[in-house]
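REVIEWER CHECKLIST
Item 1: Sequence provided? yes
Item 2: Single chain? yes
Item 3: Sequence as submitted:
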Amino acid sequence: MSELTEIHWPDYYHPKNSSVHVKEEIVVPSECERIWACIVQAPCWPNWHHRKTAVQITKGDTRMLHKGTMFDWVTKTMSFECTVVEYIPHERIAWKGKCGDVDMYHAWLLSPCDNGCRIVTESTQRGGLRWLTGRFVAKQVAAHHQQWLHLLCEQAKG
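Item 4: Structure as written out by the authors:
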């Protein structure tokens, strides 16, 4: 596994060009391979992540995310059409998504460390009214990501 560096931001989604930018990280006492398996099995997210979340893969392997996979991701408040644009097994995955006029980019980085696996999740949103609602939305997204990381930790424990 290569050394964890930073998100490979497409310029359009770079934090400097976005109204919403959220970064969270955690160290999980688990192997990165177990964390990876939980992340790429997107149709299983509602079983452990949030019951009000729905994921349907619309193009590609119907069980796991891979580069080029397209999926619909419905959260409590939004419905995104997403495409996996970066995929390095057990290290990094990222997808871009669209919901109306809002564009989103969500990336994950995994890196083994002395205490298990260091996970970084980072996302941006732009477009629509994000220029106006950015601070409020950023707080919601940060809370959502924190919950996701803690549930991911529990899920990886088995």
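Item 5: Key structural point noted by reviewer: The mean pLDDT is 89.
Item 6: Recommendation: ____
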